[in-house]
Amino acid sequence: MTRTNWTRDEIAELFDLPFTELVFRAAEVHRAHHAAGEVQLCTLLSIKTGGCPEDCGYCSQSAHAKSGLKAEKLMDVEAVLAAAAEARAAGSQRFCMGAAWREPKDRDMGKVCAMVAGVKGLGLETCMTLGMLTGDQAKQLKDAGLDYYNHNIDTSPEHYGEVITTRTFQERLDTLEEVRGAGIAVCCGGIVGMGESRDDRVGFIHALATLPRHPESVPINALVPVKGTVLGDMFAGEKMIDDIEFVRTVAVARITMPRSMVRLSAGRESMSESTQALCFLAGANSIFTGDKLLTTANAGDSADAAMFAKLGLKPMEAEEPMRKILPGTGRGTATRSGVVEGGERSEHGGVGPLHHVSYGPPPRAGEELV
What we know:
alpha/beta, single chain, two-stranded antiparallel ribbon, about 35% helix
């Protein structure tokens, strides 16, 4: 079974490994569970921009920020579906929709669920981030066909209060429980470079890797300092985390959450191709494509296509490992690449050498593993 009992000391030891050794170990774990050289393409759309009552210090959409961003109404369903169709044509596999709310109002759920059903009907994986959810709202989203719900913990429990005061860390965990209870896959990660320490990054990964079930998707963001936000003004012109430390964070996330999709999210537009290549080597296997992430700039489809060609990467074909588990059996299936998906296997349990185990010839696609 996948470990969920990591200690902070074990995670700190991983962070402290020599850089090349850490990346090597992360790459081994990645290749044991995912198709090497494949990266999932996702698109993120802001379906309701600005006016959020939360005081998240990094966010330009907060009503507390002086970013000049004006509050907008919830988009029409037709406009969202048009954007989703465009994303699909550009090669995206998952379409993520975000609304700047503390929580959705019941009156908005019909429209939001229609967006989910419509995007699902286009053949795309669906993801939403709407703030906190009740159990009933989560069930409505599930019934509409929602695949993933994003609700980040943002940072370590200890550093959290330095970034946000209007919502507790526990409230975020409570929403994740509602999402799990409804049978929706969890997308949960956070932001690095917000003035946190190495110990906070250890605590951030620890909080994710010790959840009862790891998030199926783990977005790792680098702070994009936006003028008018608390952190944007505090760190204007500064880079609060260096590239090597960012790659370390990706690598430790991969080792401790081996079957999760690890996504390079905000901040990628300022990373060199070399840094992104190291992230892919360390186990990142999902990115946001397009020119915009909610309200901040992104690398763009053409730049990503050129980078993929240079690095020999291709859009993901294999299924996501954590979504291949057969309910009630603990068994998995094989993919086209022969990668074991979802089967119960012993994971690397510490920071010592990884054990290489032969599992025999690759099973045929769709063949059940025991």
